[in-house]
Amino acid sequence: MRSVSRLLFLLALLWQLGPNFQACAQDRVRIGVPLFPTVSYPVFIAQERGFFEKNGLKGEIIRINSEPTTYQALISGDIDATSGAPTGLVQSNIQGVPVVSLGSWDNFVSYTMIAREKIDDLSQLRGKKIGLNTSKDVTLLQLGGSQERLAALIRGGIDAAPVDFAFEPKMKQMGFHLVPGRKTPFMNGPITVTVASLKANRNKWVRFVKAYLEATQYMTTNKEGALDVLKRIIPPDDRETLDHAYEEMRTRATVDLLPPDAAVENLVKMMTYVDKRAATLDRSKLADYSILKELLQSRTKR
């Protein structure tokens, strides 16, 4: 009789503590990011500043060297989400693979054109060596990411190249020139998941998007805390470079994660140069902002 009473007591205790045990349990979420991951900055903040943990998630950040490899990993289930891999979002949907963006914090082109000689207009690049195949006006050389292009500029193998804005101070220090330009809308930082995962694990993705919103807000309002994270994700450099990179990301951040239509449209337009089918792609297939809108609406009611 005593053992039965003890069992009933334990069952009652577990029933009362059940919600707390559930709160302590963490869902693992594996996020694929680029090797040079400034475009995934909020992911690192969410991890390092505890926003994932606060929302019941155990984040695992995996650096991957190319977008095709990233999307292969996403589709096969080796990762759960991508951050900052926009072209694969469009390409996958063109190929009939249903993946969607849950939001995008960075919605501008992230590259600055750097040249060995002072150039006042992009038209002055005619006859120069720059990037992917040949045309009558410029010679384009495939050179990988920003760091590879930077190395080629330093060697003198090319005349100009687009490099990540984080390198601007370093390039100026080395005597290179920034080609004047304006910020162009472009969905650069989408959070992408498969439609199947979104349907099967909606509660997890609600918590993920909530953590991402909180991390993006933190990044724009807590400079020293955000800089401390930034120092860990890009190569060690001087304070000027870190301050510049931070200020660029702070001012370009879309804090509500809702990209403007022009940013989405420019992404699709760019992809039409790779695959003409992008021009007729149904834009509504690229995103599901239902979670984001629910969270933003709940904020306004408080």
Structure explained in plain terms:
The chain is built from 13 helices and eight strands. The protein is 48% helix and 14% strand. The protein has two domains: 25-107 and 186-301, Periplasmic binding protein-like II (D-Maltodextrin-Binding Protein, domain 2, 3-Layer(aba) Sandwich), CATH 3.40.190; 111-178, 3-Layer(aba) Sandwich (D-Maltodextrin-Binding Protein, domain 2), CATH 3.40.190.10. The strands form two sheets. Strands 2-1-3-8-4 form a five-stranded mixed sheet, with helices on both faces. The chain has a three-stranded antiparallel sheet with strand order 6-5-7. It is globular, with a radius of gyration of 22 Å. Helix 2 crosses helix 9, helix 2 (41-48) crosses helix 10 (223-233) and helix 4 (67-76) packs across helix 5 (86-94). The longest helix is centred in the N-terminal third of the chain and has 23 residues, at 2-24. It has 302 residues and is an alpha/beta fold. Residues 7-24 and 131-143 have low confidence and may be disordered.
Brief descriptors of the model:
14% strand; alpha/beta; single chain; five-stranded mixed beta sheet; 302 residues; D-Maltodextrin-Binding Protein, domain 2; three-stranded antiparallel beta sheet
Q: Summary?
A:
This protein has 302 residues and is an alpha/beta fold. It has helices spanning 2-24, 41-48, 51-54, 67-76, 86-94, 146-155, 168-173, 195-200, 202-221, 223-233, 239-252, 261-272, 290-301, and strands at residues 27-34, 57-64, 81-83, 99-104, 111-115, 160-164, 177-178, 190-194. It folds into two domains: 25-107 and 186-301, Periplasmic binding protein-like II (D-Maltodextrin-Binding Protein, domain 2); 111-178, 3-Layer(aba) Sandwich (D-Maltodextrin-Binding Protein, domain 2).
